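@channel sequence for tomorrow's demo:
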Amino acid sequence: MTPFGVPLLRGGVEEPRPWKNRLWALVVLLPAGAWLALMALVADVNQRFVALRLEDRRLAWEQEARTIAAFLQRAHTLEAQVEDRGRKMIRRLEQAGRQDPEGRLPATLVAAAVQEAFPEVARPGHLRVWAFSGNPRSDTVETLSGPGLESRLRAVAAAVFRGLGTLAGGATLPAEALNRLRKQTTALFGPLAKPDLLAEVREQRLSEILFEGRFAYLWWSRLKRGRRVIGGLLVVFPGDLARRIRPREAALEQAWRRTRGRLRPFLVSMAPREGRHPVLLPPSCSRDRIARRQAGFLAHRPPEEKLPLNQVTVRAGAWWLPAFLSMDTSYHTVIVGAIPRVTGPLTGWPRSLALLGCGLLAWVLRRGGRQAVVESLRTSFLSMFLALSLLPLAAVGLYGAYQIEAAEVQQIRRIRQEAMEEAQRLDYSGDTILQELSLLTYRLAEHRQWRQALLSPASSHGLAALQKIEAACRARGLSIDDLALLAPLRPPLTLASNSVANKVLRRTKEVLAVVCARFHDFIHGASAIPPPPLGLTSGVKEALNVLQVLDQPVVARMFYAAHELGEISRTGQDEPIFSMVQTLARQGRLEAYLLLTARAETIFQRYLEQAVRRANIETAGLLSFGRFDSRTGLALSHRDHRGFWRSVAGRRLAALMVEAGELGAPRAIERDGTLFFALPMQRVSPFVLGGYRSLHQVSLTAFWQRAGLFGFLLLVSLVLAALARGAGTFLLAPLTEAAQVLTAVAHGDLEQRVICRRDDELGEMMRAFDRMISGLRERRDLGRFISGSLEQSISQGEPVGDRSRAVQAAVLVSDIRSFTTLSESHPPDEVVAMLNAHLETMAEKIRRHGGKIDRFVGDAIIALFTAPVPSEAVPQALAAAVAMMAGHAMRQDERRRRGQFLYDIGIGIDFGTVMEGTLAAGERAEYALFGPPRSEAERLEAASKAGRYTRIMVSEAVRQLAPAAMEFHAHPEHRAWELRDAARPAA
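structure tokens (generated this afternoon):
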């Protein structure tokens, strides 16, 4: 079909239209290709989102895995397992003692606590427990008795506990009492047990002893209520304790439970046996299918394959983090975690787009396939426009959203790294503190006035100088717990202090004093080494014994390497102590030593407070610190910044600091838009740095970036919509108007016109439409003078030429009675108006019932009725005749009311074979209908004058094919049948 609905004929065959195929490809394949590209784009961006989020999950998993590896490194030994269980047991007993008004502990409670802490060895004959109630320093110790507690050697055990408790509390024992304690300890626990060592550094720690002639372990501890001692325990473990407790498996079980099964810790042997690596896994993982499978991969890997330590790798569908365990074991730690299933924000969109595209394609095909798409120009234009504009917008939106989220993640990572670096910088600044303190004491000691007073023989001058030096140190932020002046052959001068720290530092001061004296003798070449003074502790004597065997040059190098440099050491209570020796010389000869000792906690606390205020962070309250003790927990040293520690964030940070202190590894988490981090200090281990950084600004920035991107895309979409609307109006509005006009023309309204004042191709096409409508109007006017049979043949695509054809049809002839008399007796204009109205009414009835008007012959009408089944043409012709008579009667009634002249008509109908053909002579041709049915119909119309009913005369052939409901009256004289009665159709 052409755009005007007229087929292009070439040799009787419709012309091929390749432009339709190209338009089909353009309209359908272009949106389909854009749709596929959009699905690929969505899948690619979603994969990028998945990779980004998976990397973030991996970093969080790696941090937790490194924390668990650090925990295993600390807790895999027998000593660590016993110490952890013992601390929990002591904490439970001390809590029970606080509930009792007198602080007494029931024996059953003590036995139950020991049973719960050490279930593997808490059986009769395996574990020996002595429990005591009372304060050792007040000699009110009472030995508890009951099931599970040792009843033998109670007196000796009580005496040992009293002596150990007295020494651990900082008090001294007379020489006789100290010798008796050594004998009792040796008799009970063998020669390996040293009272001073047990009291100072081995409380709540495992010590090797000989009990009843066999190798065993000793563990002892005091029970406190506040600062007051209310009792204690002596526990002797069997020598095969490691085999019973199995510390490695126990540490693995603790790590497994700590992570709630998210991580699976393994210990993998570095030495393969029989082609496989032995693997230790937590007992609870023995029924875990994934854990067993991962253990199998670890065990059966190639012997030559080395696990990269401290590097996260992907093996067997899981994350692996191999880590170092210790130097005295042949195992490595391997932390295994399942790779989580991460979905992007666009997961499922490609599938949804594919289903939607298939649905749209099915709908298009159902609506008519290629023809429907091609003929809908608006749909085609919009499809191509969406195909060209949707893909770039989707690409910009998707990749913009990905870049915003990636920038947000990178910003959070940068903030986390900066926070941890800030905490590490404060930790590494411990060496700076030591240098500053050394420089400060050096300047104070070298002050001329104070130096002369310190070297003065008068003790009052030296004591006054020490007091001034202490005051100067305090003014500069250095809180000194002990300051002493040591000079050979003179009694030491020291500032009196009753503080707890001074009692703790007593032994350290004694050791330093004697060592300084011995250094002085070595440096100045004393001919004879004097015997050590009486009343010294065993620790001091051991230090002197070491110095006795060293050569003088070695001792000199040790002295020059150690003096005037501050250092941090630990006491038996795990309290870090800062100590420094400053030399005082006169005329090139060393004459005295200034000994300074102080609690490192106090020094570092002051320093950290200043460093936090100087730190490059938003608020000083964002970085806090506290002293962590495995026994007492976390003691916050930083001030409570606006009640922060009572808030949810403060409690969360405190819990994270406790966890970092327990594991000895840095920790960082993100909760509710806040980054919390904690770092155990390496320079001063009791301290744990903790802080938090708000991430709301990062989230807010990302939100506004997303909003800006959405607004930009919305603006571009509106601009594109406006452009599409303008382009559609410019391109499609004339076509839409032309389509409406052509639709009206197709329904017979040839008075329409397409008005388009444009000089482009559309304007030329609209003017062509107007010329076409004008041609159709002329054709219509000419068609009034063309045979209806010819018009029907042309409209049906039948060939018209010199050939003729025969058809089975019913021929109807109608004529006005006495038309000549009417034309002579009435004015011509009235006759013509009457004739036009009559012909219009009759033609309308004939067309309504399927007939075609062959021609008008004056006042006569010749019509032809055909049908696919020839016998069906007779009912149509009869129905048309009845309708014509009804219409004629209504028109006569109307003319009667108007006072116009009346007239009558007759109708004749015959059925048979009719010939259609072209009659030509030279250049003149006429398409004619002829044959016996036409002549018979004309004769029957003339015989209708004799009719008495309807004046519709039919032949015998018509009567036989007429419906049974119709009745006919015979007119033998005219060889005709008159329709007598029939249902009168609507006019």
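heads up for whoever presents: The two ends are 38 Å apart (CA to CA).
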